[in-house]
Design brief:
The complex is a heterodimer of chains A (488) and B (715). By secondary structure, chain A is an alpha/beta fold. Chain A has 14 helices and 21 strands. A six-stranded mixed beta sheet of chain A has the order 6-2-1-10-20-19, sandwiched between helices. In chain A, a hairpin with a 2-residue loop joins strand 7 and strand 8. Chain A is elongated. Chain B is an alpha/beta fold and 715 residues long. Classes of the chains: A alpha/beta (488), B alpha/beta (715). The interface between A and B is large, with 49 and 41 residues.
Chain lengths: 488, 715
């Protein structure tokens, strides 16, 4: 029997980093809070992050990392071509160091301030136990300070009276139940699993040329609810592109095949043409962007030969996939995984004795692929990539005797906006005025980015935006409750 | 949280858990005692509906007087027992157990469909397993998705043994076993009951038969009950339809019930048929609808299209079972009152004695209102009487069911056309349900459409069903591809027309008519001409002589419901016809001053949930709202309007009654040798063949009886 409260000060929709940070802030500030989570398990996509962004944190200071808030602000704004909301960007960056301390005080352990890509500032604060540990710590803290957390119970719509938010309807086993509240924080995590909206706002076809990871049941509830009460739209089309990878139940995230497909060797389109400087793969986001030019095909291919496989198994990889697999990690299971995939008749992995045969098996144009490989091998021999100017360290020819192709599909980590907010994370209506009592953060809120995720200058920003926007939304709601208290 | 708390227990004993004195059932184990007292103890292999296994060791606790750590799922409670569920030692043991479970499990959840509905992930989150000291070994076993209902991914199996216990102990089907398989070889089969979780990477769960690995669940004798999927705590066993939650999940698991517009509890009555208790089966149907036998003849059975057995071989013959129950279950009289318990003192009028109107009248009477039904035609039944031909729905069946329905004290006035709702309201009726149906046939706007010899389907069938002599030519062309078109064509054959053609826009496979109507029509000599659109009707001296058509490449309906057709070039042809029948849709016929708002399309404008109109106390049901639809839709709609009107009149709007006994279904199904291949029986069913057909049911609803394990976040 689930005990749904009839009345609370604040309803929080979603139990990810945003919702939990807001709930803890609110409950510690003396508000009564109830967090409603759609899924059985808590934390949503926040379980996945391995670290989070911050600048001028004590961990960075201890390590002589001198990247400043000002530099980060300028870089982030420049990256977005000043499409991002500068006050919001500033607020999140300024809050970030304090949030590291705040989390530590609530039981989260940070082990390192580092980075997993070349030439980037060390903004990534690693968490012992990953995002799951943050979720666990914040859930326990929230409960300890009196917040209620109710899983398997989505918030389905907002109640509004006289212009202000007065509560929400939640779905209890198929029945709608009213919860009276003076404020609502929307933190439902975007719309990464909503096929129709993905098509409408990004032009991709979910499950065809774009695949979500770490997202479950994200249908855009928060966006819909906010828009239904007159919220303005911002940043709805921005998605967090990740790397490219083979897709299917037989390819677990982090498997050797996925890592091999991400290495900066030769990548080609479905026709067999090279399409980018493969070292952009060090920075995740641009891979998805470069590949999106070919979204009509639905995929590209990462090519290997025996020498590349040998190198990956002995010398290790160049591009670390996540923190768990740093450069130098040897892909010991790679041959076994390739064999298993071929044995099971996988449609994602191919092997051939010649380039022509590989083209036939994969559906590439044999003449195009042959020319691509010949040209690429010539660049490797001369040590200069005349086409895309790839760093010569990564120019390594494909000579056989056997050639391999891994079908590489665009995977993404979530949608990054939709609801227009200000730097206090108040939801704005179409006149840019706050809707009293309504807040949004994390993947539901827009304005933090331009058209792409600025991973190079501020790695870890998505989770940091969630945590920091949640904290700020919580504080804003507390301030609102203080002013509105007499009007209850 | 678990329902049975401390209060109300019989002879509870008390023990101490984490310093709290709690009460427990004497037959409980420590794990249950803790969980029931709201103290979370992590556990994976244990499941409330399955016998304990004690293999995962996540639930270990310290018990005073016991040495070391004890699995709480296999340890019975004792009075005065002192239990600790949290300590550094306990946490370390649980984390090690978790590492062992995860050793052969894929390392990341990101691409798993089960994520966030996965007990393993929730436990990993709870225990905070960061770095594994156990070497991870990927299994690299193939994912088996050949089965039409389930996907089995042995790579995600953690050998908790729950599916085995569900299959063996809960359901008695006994087809799942532990097998050793290697990535590249299929031999080496061993079977043993749930083993220790010292995970060998290549061990997994698979269907077995006589201790031999067999390749498909079907061949092993699976009953496709889904219990293994239901209890699987990871993504190793999943439904083909994916992981759903809440109402969506219930609908996907028991689709026959949800797809029925009246939500008849199909699995429940099919189960009674299987047991030979036809009276109870009939009672289950009558809990939701009147007209069981009529539906047994003519329902368009959306339940069967959704039946999950259809994915295996053939859907259960649900309609035929309904017919058997309605005939044989009624012997000796039906259960349940047909008269109301209390009189409300309110008077209501129902306009139209079709399935929607009569259903509304029946339920309104049961709720204690005085009901008068006004019918414009000489006989009650609406489209059941004047649309559907007698060869499909015998008139004595209809007459008998209408008589039973009226027996509770409904007044019927035939030959009484209501010209205005306002008039009814001024006559003192407290409420009105308008169910006038859709009796105005539509003609396509092509030349010749109004010539002598051209009918609309609804007019033609009304004349046929009124036993009037219908002037019909030797060659008949029916335009339209639905059931009405086939009714017209087959009736025309019965009237003696020798050449009867049905021409429709759709290609043959997309025709909206029921497949058996089409087949039977063809057997009777009806000729089908699919993918054609008529362009004009040739007329000579005012009489029809032929219909001209062109071929259809594709078509769609625009927002206004008009067909937009792309034709094939140079495909014109003519078909000789002395009679042409338009079976191209029907709309309601509204008297001029009826007093209700009508849409541009000619349908009543109502609140989609309550069917209320802009006039207080007036509701509309059936085809008058939706346009031509099915009998079961009309009945469901009539019932919905009755509920809304009843509430409007101060009633509770609760129309469903409990007529059949509540029998807890037997969770044990027994072995299913050959079960998957059992053919559908749907011809001339009797009690015995009906029971055989009913026992083909997968009993999908049994899954909903299996408890869902509460995760740590719920404590």
């Amino acid at each position: 029997m689930i005990d749904i409260p009839e009345r609370v000060d604040v309803v929080v929709a979603g139990s990810g980093a945003t919702g939990l940070a807001a709930a803890v802030t609110l409950a510690e500030g003396g508000a009564t809070v109830c967090v409603f989570e759609k899924q059985r398990s808590l934390g949503g996509t926040s379980n996945f992050f391995q670290g989070t962004f911050a600048v001028e944190s004590h961990l960075q200071r201890e390590r002589y990392v001198d990247y400043t808030r000002d530099q980060c602000f300028k870089n982030t704004m420049e990256y977005s071509h000043w499409r991002a909301n500068p006050r919001l960007v500033r607020a999140i960056i300024d809050e970030s160091a304090d949030t590291i301390r705040w989390l530590e005080e609530r039981g989260v352990v940070f082990t390192e301030a580092t980075i997993n890509m070349p030439d980037s500032p060390l903004t990534y604060h690693l968490i012992r136990g990953k995002g799951e540990a943050v979720v666990k710590a914040l859930v326990e803290r929230a409960k300890a300070v009196g917040a209620q957390i109710i899983p398997s119970t989505p918030v389905v719509s907002l109640l509004r009276e006289g212009g202000r938010i007065t509560g929400a309807l939640v779905d209890v086993q198929g029945e709608e139940v009213e919860v009276t509240a003076r404020a609502v924080v929307l933190a439902t995590g975007g719309y990464a699993n909503n096929k129709e909206w993905i098509k409408k706002y990004t032009g991709f076809e979910l499950g065809v040329n774009l695949f979500p990871v770490g997202n479950t049941g994200k249908t855009g509830d928060g966006l819909r609810m906010a828009w239904e009460v007159g919220a303005a739209e911002e940043g709805v089309s921005t998605i967090e592109m990740f790397r490219v990878a083979p897709v299917g139940p037989e390819f677990a995230m982090g498997c050797n095949l996925e890592q091999a497909a991400a290495q900066p060797d030769l990548w080609v389109t479905a026709r067999g043409e090279r399409f980018c400087d493969e070292t952009i793969g060090f920075y995740d986001t641009p891979v998805g962007n470069a590949q999106a030019r070919y979204k009509a095909d639905g995929y590209t291919f990462s090519l290997l030969d025996d020498s590349i496989i040998e190198r990956l198994m002995t010398y290790g990889l160049d591009k670390g996939v996540g923190i768990d697999f740093p450069p130098g990690t040897r892909l010991l299971e790679l041959r076994k995984e390739i064999e298993a995939a071929l044995e099971h008749g996988s449609s994602e992995v191919f092997v051939a004795d010649s380039i022509e045969e590989l083209a036939q098996k994969t559906g590439m144009y044999p003449a195009v692929l042959a020319a691509t490989v010949a040209e690429y091998n010539r660049y490797c021999a001369q040590g200069h990539d005349e086409l895309f100017a790839k760093d010569r360290r990564y120019l390594r020819p494909l000579l056989g005797p056997r050639f391999y192709a891994i079908r590489a599909r665009a995977v993404f980590l979530g949608t990054m906006g939709g609801i227009k907010v200000n730097e206090r994370l108040e939801v704005l209506d179409k006149e840019d005025l706050p809707i009293p009592g309504l807040y949004a953060g994390g993947f539901d809120a827009g304005g933090m980015y331009g058209d792409s995720y600025p991973i190079k200058s501020s790695s870890g920003l998505a989770s940091a935006f969630a945590l920091n926007s949640g904290r700020i939304a919580g504080r804003s709601a507390l301030a609102y409750l203080a002013t509105a208290r007499g009007m209850r | 949280m678990t329902a049975c708390g401390g209060a109300g227990l019989e002879n509870p004993l008390t023990l101490t858990i984490d310093g709290r004195v709690v009460e427990a059932r004497p037959d409980a184990v420590v794990l249950e005692a803790g969980l029931e007292a709201g103290i979370y103890i992590p556990h994976l292999c244990d499941h409330p509906d399955l016998p304990p296994a004690g293999v995962c060791r996540l639930c270990v606790v310290e018990i005073e007087g016991h040495e070391g750590l004890t699995p709480s799922c296999t340890t019975p409670v004792r009075a005065g027992m002192v239990v600790r569920t949290r300590s550094d030692e306990i946490l370390a043991a649980r984390r090690l157990a978790m590492e062992l479970l995860l050793a052969a499990h894929p390392p990341e959840c990101g691409s798993c469909e089960k994520y966030l509905n996965c007990e393993l992930q929730s436990l990993k989150q709870y225990l905070g397993v960061e770095e594994s000291r156990v070497k991870r070994r990927a299994k690299l076993l193939p994912v088996d998705s050949r089965n039409p209902l389930f996907v089995h991914d042995p790579n995600k199996c953690v050998l908790c043994g729950r599916c085995l216990r569900a299959c063996w102990d809960l359901r008695g089907v006994r087809v799942l076993g532990l097998v050793k398989q290697q990535a590249q070889a299929s031999g080496g089969i061993q079977y043993e009951k749930p083993a220790t979780p010292n995970v060998l990477a290549e061990v997994s769960v698979a269907p077995i038969k006589q201790n031999r690995l067999v390749l498909s669940l079907a061949d092993a004798g699976c009953r496709f009950c889904g219990a293994c999927v239901e209890v699987c705590p990871t993504g190793a066993m999943q439904d083909k339809f994916g992981v759903l939650t809440g109402a969506e999940r219930k609908a996907a698991i028991v689709p026959c019930k949800i797809k029925c517009p009246a939500e008849i509890d199909v699995p429940r009555y099919v189960r009674f048929v299987a047991r030979g208790d036809l009276a109870s089966a009939l009672a289950v149907i009558r809990e939701k609808v009147p007209f069981p036998l009529t539906l047994g003849h003519v329902c368009d059975r959306p339940c069967e299209s959704a039946c999950r057995r259809g994915e295996l071989n053939q859907a259960i013959a649900i309609r035929e079972l309904k017919r058997v129950a309605a005939i044989l279950g009624a012997e000796g009289g039906c259960r349940g009152d047909l008269a109301p318990r209390n009189e409300s003192g309110k008077r209501v009028a129902v306009v139209g004695a079709g399935p929607a109107g009569l259903t509304a009248a029946f339920y309104l009477r049961l709720q204690g209102h005085q009901v008068t039904v006004f019918e414009a035609l000489p006989e009650p039944g609406g489209m059941l009487r004047y649309g559907i031909p007698a060869y499909r729905l015998p008139r004595e069946v209809l007459a008998q069911e209408i008589a039973a329905l009226l027996a509770g004290g409904v007044f019927l006035k035939t030959n009484s056309r209501v010209e205005s709702v306002t008039e009814l309201l001024t006559c003192g009726y407290d409420g009105v349900v308008v169910a006038v149906g859709a009796h105005r046939g539509q003609r396509l706007r092509i030349p010749g459409a109004t010539a002598v010899g051209v009918f609309t389907g609804v007019d033609f069938l009304r004349q046929v069903n009124s036993a009037a002599t219908v002037p019909i030519a030797d060659s008949v062309v029916v335009i339209g591809g639905g059931n009405v078109a086939l009714d017209c064509a087959r009736s025309a054959r019965r009237l003696g027309a020798s050449r009867v053609t049905v021409a429709c826009l759709e290609c043959r496979n997309d025709m909206p008519a029921a497949p058996e109507e089409i087949e039977e029509g063809e057997a009777e000599g009806v000729v089908l001409l699919p993918s054609l659109t008529p362009t004009r009707i040739q007329v000579d001296s005012g009489r029809v002589t032929a219909v001209e058509f062109v071929g259809v490449a594709s078509f769609c309906f625009d927002d206004a419901g008009q067909a937009q057709v792309e034709t094939v070039r140079d495909s014109a042809r003519a078909v000789t016809a002395g009679t042409v029948i338009f079976a191209t849709g029907q709309l309601p016929e509204w008297p001029e001053e009826f007093g209700l708002e009508v849409s541009d399309r000619g349908l009543a404008v109502v609140d989609p949930h309550t069917l209320a109109t802009c006039r207080e106390g007036v509701f509309v049901a059936g085809d008058a709202v939706t346009g031509t639809s099915s009998v079961i839709q009309a009945i469901a709609s009539g019932k919905r309007a009755a509920a809304a009107l009843d509430r409007h009149l101060g009633g509770n709007g609760r129309l469903d009654r409990r007529l059949a006994p509540v029998v807890e279904p037997e969770p044990c199904l027994g072995p299913g040798e050959g079960f998957h291949a059992l053919p559908r029986l749907d011809q001339d069913l009797d009690e015995h063949s009906g029971a055989s057909e009913a026992s083909r049911c997968l009993q999908c609803d049994l899954r909903l009886k299996i408890k869902t394990v509460a995760l740590w976040g719920e404590y």
